[in-house]
Design goal:
CATH architecture of the largest domain: 2-Layer Sandwich
CATH superfamily of the largest domain: Fructose-1,6-Bisphosphatase, subunit A, domain 1
Bound molecules: 2,5-anhydro-1,6-di-O-phosphono-D-mannitol, magnesium ion
Strand order of the largest sheet: 4-3-5-6-7-8-9-10
Largest sheet: 8 strands, mixed
Structural class: alpha+beta
CATH topology of the largest domain: Fructose-1,6-Bisphosphatase, Chain A, domain 1
Order of helices and strands: HHEEHEEEEHEEEEEHEHEEHEEEH
Oligomer: single chain
Radius of gyration: 19 Å
Length: 334
């Protein structure tokens, strides 16, 4: 097969439009992309590398860890602990932060969901790695959990790798969203979509319908109006998709529009939602906004939320701007 002619990820970062970005951040992003290549390789080996199934352990959120959750977490920790770019890391799979030891300390904080969509690992459905990068606020002192508790608007970069039929790396450094496809032969990420834009309108929504009886009134109203189709108040037919890997559902929305919802529900009223603010909602909201979409928890923009703890959960509604704004209106008038 012929070699792709588009830019590699490295060439993209070195282009004039990114001249203002600190070299350490560029190097960090290249390191993250390289870790994702290793995880991609392991995902595609699956049972051949004895990487399917449960690890028999639980994480801080009380969820059972899969072997690939732990493998991906270890790859990211090992690849970043001695590169000199980070002050600390935090992961969905670790109870507390991982501080970088001297003399390897750098200026950034890296947060990740090492393997999103864990329930899909064993059934060969798309999964991914989600990451968020913040600046370490106090360069002189040792990093603490409090340093991570920054609003999502502070993210200097965010992205994900999607391990599907192709491995795709999607990233934003705050000036739009770009998508790269991994060439399996050269193991390079090549730019395959620059300036990603989410259409403002859509006829597609994504939600776990089995939770319907637990939803709050605004979400029930929105979904029932979609289901009513062309004879209902929306006067158009909607389609529904639910992959159960946020990374794959958000990827679809970045490619062709749609709305993704994992809202608060009445099963556990004190729990704000299922998804994690710092490892899932913030990086995905950053990408979605950078692509012209919107992302809210119902009442407010997710990127404006002041986190109170590392593993905070949040209700998530994101995607095509006009639909998300309509759902926000339903919440405000409830
Ligand atoms: P994970 O990070 O442990 O994989 O959990 C998050 C996932 C999301 O990717 C997905 O949107 C959601 O959980 C699916 O939940 P459900 O199984 O309730 O449909
Ligand atoms: Mg996840």
């Amino acid at each position: 097969m012929s070699q792709p002619t588009s830019k590699t990820f490295r060439e993209f970062l070195n282009a004039d439009q990114h001249a203002h970005i600190h070299q350490d951040l560029k190097d960090l992003l290249l390191d993250v992309a390289n870790s994702c290549k290793k995880i991609s390789h392991a995902v595609h080996q699956g049972a051949l590398a004895n990487l399917l199934g449960s690890a028999g352990t639980g994480n801080v959120q009380g969820e059972t860890q899969q072997k690939l959750d732990i493998f991906a977490n270890d790859v990211l920790l090992e690849d970043h602990s001695r590169k000199g770019k980070l002050a600390a890391m935090a992961s969905e799979e670790m109870d507390s932060i991982y501080a970088i030891q001297k003399p390897f300390q750098g200026a950034f904080l890296l947060l990740f969901d090492p393997l999103d969509g864990s329930s899909n690992i064993d059934v060969n459905v798309s999964i991914g790695t989600i990451f968020s990068i913040l600046k370490h606020p106090s360069s002189s002192s040792a990093p603490t959990e409090a340093d991570f508790l920054q609003v999502g608007t502070n993210q200097v970069a965010a992205g994900y790798a999607l391990y599907g039929p192709q491995t795709i790396f999607v990233v934003s450094v705050g000036n739009g969203v770009a998508m790269f496809t991994l060439d399996p032969e050269s193991q390079e990420f090549y730019l395959t979509q620059a300036n990603v834009q989410i259409p403002k309108d859509t006829k597609e929504f994504a939600i776990n319908m089995s939770n319907m009886r637990h939803w709050d009134a605004p979400v029930s109203r929105y979904v029932s109006e979609c289901l009513a189709g062309s004879t209902g108040p929306r006067q158009k037919d909607f389609n529904m998709r639910w992959i159960a890997s946020m990374v794959a559902d958000v990827h679809r929305i970045l490619v062709r529009g749609g709305v993704f919802m994992y809202p608060w529900d009445k099963r556990e009223p004190d729990k704000p939602g299922k998804l994690r603010l710092m490892y899932e909602a913030n990086p995905m909201s950053f990408l979605v906004e950078q692509a012209g979409g919107a992302s809210i928890n119902g009442q407010q923009r997710i990127l404006d939320i002041h986190p109170s703890k590392l593993h905070e959960r949040v209700s998530v509604i994101l995607g095509s701007a006009n639909e998300v704004n309509l759902i926000m209106k339903y919440h405000k008038s409830n």
